Amino acid sequence: MAAWDDLTGQADAIAIFRAAAARPGIDSPESAGASAESASMTHAWLITGPPGSGRSNLAFAFATALLSPGTPEGDEATHRQVNARTHPDLTVLSTEGVIIKMGTVKEVVARSQYSPSMSRYRVIVVEDADRMVERTSNVLLKALEEPPERTVWILCAPSEADLLPTIRSRVRSVRLRVPSVDDVAALLVKRNGVDAETAERAARQAQSHIGMAQRLATNADARDRRDETLRAALGIRGVSQAVTTAARLLAIAGDDAKAFTEEQDAAERAGVLRSLGVEPGGNIPPGLRGQLKALEDDQKRRATRGLRDGIDRILVDLASLYRDVMMVQLGRESTVINRELLPELRTASTSCTAAQSVATLDAIAISRQRIESNVAPALALEAMLVTAIRR
């Protein structure tokens, strides 16, 4: 199985990374400023692209190619180790919280100084590099300024603008495009074995976001929550309904986040108890409770991020809804995303003007910015939904 088999819609980016992985060694640090089309191999890369475009998948495929002995296609054993994040020469820097902590970055920077133990390179993948505050980014900057000879950094972020200019000047950027609905649907059929109709609907409703499309294709509850969200928004007729709908959307986001993390939390807790020698259902010795408390704190931070991400997904879905209303108003029904709601969209299009639909889309964008700036989600949603009132 080649390292690139699970990727879709990114042929140009794959060609760049495949050519770089085939190079015998790393070029000088100055090569980071070369054009993305260059086949040279540099010590630091930045993969950018919209959410769901496959940034992390491409980063780990590149890591597999770099860590595999003798072939840029990636051998099966290395592929399994990278997927399990157990390869001795692979380090992954990520967070399930809102930001990446400085202490975590310092640990990874220290580890980057080690020579690889069994591969050509030591590879460090930084997922969500945009989640570092400036002072944390400066710690990473120092590692990029004086890179070890055989260490390769692979950073992932939505856009170059999300990182400090000093970091951008020391990495080679490769931007991903949004894969087509057909590409994502084909991937779902191949990877998850879903039928073509379900795959197409999930890819379309997820707007080509690979991770969300997979969830919609394989999880009926997720599909039901999305449908309830859109129908609730279409039914707003007054301020009181806007307020109650905002509360309901928060509850849906909470249910979605809980469903996403509950199974993972239970597995983590069971794993920790097992490693500590505590039988299921047994009493936890006082001396071990601190370790469980640390795990619970991490899970709470993940739940906070999960809720925020869930709210953002709802806002993205609402943006697709009101974009569809505007398309119907402009006579462009063939471009509608939520085709299953076409009768309701036609009714909604008669109760407002295209200008009002644009105003609601602007309100959704502002709401996303406010929540990102730590405005109370309930207030941000209420203010946005008031603009969605249709008589």
From TrEMBL:
Coiled-coil parts of chain: none
Gene3D superfamilies, alphabetized: P-loop containing nucleotide triphosphate hydrolases
Protein name (database record): DNA polymerase III subunit delta
